[in-house]
């Protein structure tokens, strides 16, 4: 699947006018920079806001242009605003999702609604960060905000984001994502937009913008820091209609069911086979005409037109068929189904008990099974939040399964379809006070190929609460519950289901400070509950989605590419294992119209020595280059994390260059106590 599968529309209903920069002045004098696409019409129109830290003028300009043009061409103002302290806006950004960001967003909505070209009816849309703040601002109930489309986002910042998984430190993305923001926050605003004060703004940001990871790692339990911005703390606060959109390959999909179940007002969910991408451009596909579907949503809630979208069932979900596991998928075969509520009313839970290496319908043994996790387990996990097909997805899991305590069914006599969360209850003991369990559910083909379909983890000190963890008593059995990631998956007849358990999962999860042996008590106290969708359940009257559309984008020139690779190296003598990820990020690109040229190089390295969890360490390097005319800027960062038995150690270095001159360099070093991890 390529970009050619998306039809570029040229015969839009309205001509489009684009304002490259409009200043929105806030009550404290801060100016936020906006790029605005508007239909050419004397009549006021509704407006759609996307509110991001990702630099409207350069970083996201190529992505924003077709979106803004398409929606403006269909009668909406599309407003892209740089968050305070990012891009061309004034100020300094201090963290993700602070109260200030919401407060500013409320003022932005009021400003847009007051413009003569706006009807006063506004929507918010966004993927990831913009999906987060759309929900967060909706919970503030601004009267101007009539509806939200939130893609690849979450209602719970602790449960489903790049920082923690089941109370475990998410090593895979916490530092790498911090490294992305650390480097991009160090770039200057555009001098041609900001004017004479651009360099002063840049130097202030370099001096005052902190490394975000410090705050994230300081809060290792679900405290007030994470509750802020987690709209699940008060679902009833969101009254406007919300459409939650995501994909089975994304890291944020669990939130869709929770919001469908918890929000009080009109809401819908859409889950496709997609990664962290818009559904009309995502790989793997099938892609859908999502912009057309979004237009139906906005027409209903911003124009009060009867498009029928609010009469359709609450959830459209894609049931994926078996594919041979691979790091790259262009398409996932499957079909669309509809459900009227969440949890899906058609789903019937089915319980399988853990036996002696088996998953059985009735408990047939009571047996204690011991397993010591190996530190190399997890090297074939795939990325936590895939963006596309390049070496992002989990490969064949047989090698991983062999390192685990496994339980599996016999060959299935008939096809099995799953929609929802698998849930695992275990009676388990650990020989150390600090330990976690990771569970993977795999579809095993007759030839032995193992396809990962769901997983979940739990820090065992969080067995009763993510807010008040308590150490284990070594050797004492406890009952625990793990909710695995939501899935929509068909298992063919003749395949088997395999449950794999371990106390290690590097570099997905930061290891416990000591090697851990788990003892699982098989029998009536340990079971797996599957969300079975009966084969005779009605699929619903699913409308065929139109082919994906877009509008013309910016004319760009590819200047250079950086080789992308994902390399695992193992020294069998020392036991040292190194994983290196080199990410292209699109290479260096020049916008023909503006002359802006932007490029990024990203490399992440994860290291561990077998048998020594305290050897876990990682480094993230980023280089970002930005130029326009005779102005050239670059930022180079290095972020590292390591540990001992009692502390995590962070080190960040940022260097900034204007032309060939280094104008800033600083290193931050911190030690942060381990808190029950």
Task: Name a few traits of the molecule.
nine-stranded antiparallel beta sheet, 15% helix, 677 residues, Rossmann fold, Jelly Rolls, globular
Helix proportion: 10-25%
Query: What overall geometry do the principal axes of the alpha carbons give?
Result: globular
Gap between N and C termini: 42 Å
Query: How does the major sheet shape up?
Result: 10 strands, mixed
Our count of helices gives 11
CATH topology of the domain at 14-157 and 228-321: Rossmann fold
Write the layout of secondary structure elements.
Blueprint: E1 7-9, E2 16-25, E3 31-39, E4 45-52, H1 61-72, E5 77-82, H2 99-114, E6 118-127, H3 129-138, E7 145-151, E8 164-165, E9 168-169, H4 171-184, H5 191-194, H6 198-208, H7 212-218, H8 224-227, E10 242-247, H9 254-262, E11 267-272, H10 290-302, E12 315-320, E13 334-339, E14 348-354, E15 359-360, E16 367-372, H11 398-401, E17 405-408, E18 416-420, E19 423-430, E20 436-444, E21 450-459, E22 478-483, E23 487-491, E24 496-502, E25 517-522, E26 527-532, E27 549-551, E28 556-560, E29 565-570, E30 576-583, E31 588-591, E32 597-609, E33 612-628, E34 631-643, E35 647-658, E36 661-673
Parallel strand pairs: 1-27, 4-5, 4-6, 6-7, 7-10, 10-11, 11-12
Antiparallel strand pairs: 2-3, 3-5, 8-9, 12-13, 14-15, 14-26, 16-25, 17-24, 18-23, 19-22, 19-25, 19-26, 20-21, 20-24, 28-31, 29-30, 30-32, 31-32, 32-33, 33-34, 34-35, 35-36
């Amino acid at each position: 699947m390529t970009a050619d599968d998306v039809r570029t529309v040229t015969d839009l209903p309205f001509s489009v006018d684009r304002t490259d920069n409009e200043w929105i002045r806030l009550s404290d004098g801060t100016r936020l920079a906006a790029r605005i696409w508007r239909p050419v019409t004397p009549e006021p129109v509704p407006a759609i806001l996307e509110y991001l830290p990702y630099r409207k003028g350069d970083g996201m300009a190529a992505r924003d242009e077709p979106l803004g043009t398409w929606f403006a061409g269909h009668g909406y103002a599309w407003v892209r605003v740089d968050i305070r302290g990012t891009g061309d806006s004034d100020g300094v950004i201090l963290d993700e999702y602070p109260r200030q960001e919401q407060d500013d967003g409320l003022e932005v909505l009021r400003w847009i609604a007051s413009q003569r070209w706006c009807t006063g009816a506004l929507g918010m849309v966004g993927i990831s960060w913009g999906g987060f703040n759309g929900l967060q601002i909706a919970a503030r109930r601004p009267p101007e905000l009539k509806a939200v489309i939130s893609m690849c986002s979450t209602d719970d910042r602790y449960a489903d984001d790049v920082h923690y998984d089941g109370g475990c430190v998410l090593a895979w993305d916490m530092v790498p994502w911090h490294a992305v923001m650390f480097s991009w926050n160090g770039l200057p605003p555009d001098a041609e937009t900001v004017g004479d004060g651009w360099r002063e703004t840049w130097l202030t940001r370099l001096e005052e913008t902190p490394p975000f990871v410090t705050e994230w790692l300081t809060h290792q339990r679900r405290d007030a820091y994470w509750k802020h911005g987690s709209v699940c703390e008060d679902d009833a606060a969101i009254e406007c209609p919300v459409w939650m959109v995501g994909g089975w390959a994304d890291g944020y999909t669990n939130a869709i069911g929770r919001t469908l179940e918890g929000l009080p007002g009109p809401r819908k969910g859409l889950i496709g086979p997609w990664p962290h991408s818009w559904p009309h451009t995502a790989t793997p596909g099938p892609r859908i005409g999502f912009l057309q579907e979004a237009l139906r949503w906005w027409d209903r809630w911003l124009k009060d037109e009867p498009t029928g979208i609010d009469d359709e069932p609450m959830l459209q979900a894609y049931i994926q068929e078996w594919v041979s596991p691979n790091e790259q998928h262009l398409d996932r075969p499957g079909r669309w189904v509809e459900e009227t509520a969440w949890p899906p009313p058609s789903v019937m839970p089915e319980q399988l008990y853990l036996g002696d290496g088996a998953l059985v319908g009735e408990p047939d043994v009571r047996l204690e099974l011991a397993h010591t996790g190996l530190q190399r387990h997890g090297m074939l996990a795939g990325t936590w939040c895939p963006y596309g097909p390049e070496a992002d997805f989990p490969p064949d899991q047989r090698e991983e399964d062999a390192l685990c305590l496994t339980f599996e069914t016999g060959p299935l006599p008939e096809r099995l379809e799953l929609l929802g969360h698998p849930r695992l209850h275990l009676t388990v003991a650990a020989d150390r006070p600090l330990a976690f369990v990771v569970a993977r559910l795999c579809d095993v083909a007759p030839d032995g190929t193992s396809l990962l379909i769901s997983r979940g983890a739990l820090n065992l000190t969080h067995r009763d609460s993510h807010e008040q963890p308590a150490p284990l008593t070594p050797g004492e059995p406890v009952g625990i519950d793990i909710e695995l990631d939501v899935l929509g998956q068909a298992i063919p007849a003749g395949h088997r289901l395999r449950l794999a358990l371990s106390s290690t999962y590097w570099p997905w999860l930061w290891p416990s400070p000591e090697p851990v042996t788990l003892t699982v008590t098989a029998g009536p106290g340990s079971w797996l509950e599957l969300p079975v969708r009966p084969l005779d359940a009605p699929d619903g009257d699913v409308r065929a989605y139109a082919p994906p559309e877009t509008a013309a984008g910016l004319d760009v020139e590819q200047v250079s590419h950086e080789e992308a690779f994902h390399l695992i190296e193992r020294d069998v003598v020392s036991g040292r294992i190194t994983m290196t990820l080199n990410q292209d990020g699109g290479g260096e690109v020049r916008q023909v119209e503006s002359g802006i040229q932007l490029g990024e190089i990203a490399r992440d390295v994860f290291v561990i020595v077998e048998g020594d969890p305290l050897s876990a360490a990682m480094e993230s390097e980023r280089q970002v280059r930005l130029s326009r005319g005779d102005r050239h800027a670059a930022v180079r960062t290095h972020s590292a994390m390591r540990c001992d038995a009692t502390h995590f150690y962070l080190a960040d270095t940022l260097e900034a260059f204007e032309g060939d001159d280094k104008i800033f360099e600083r290193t931050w070093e911190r030690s942060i106590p381990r808190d029950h991890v």
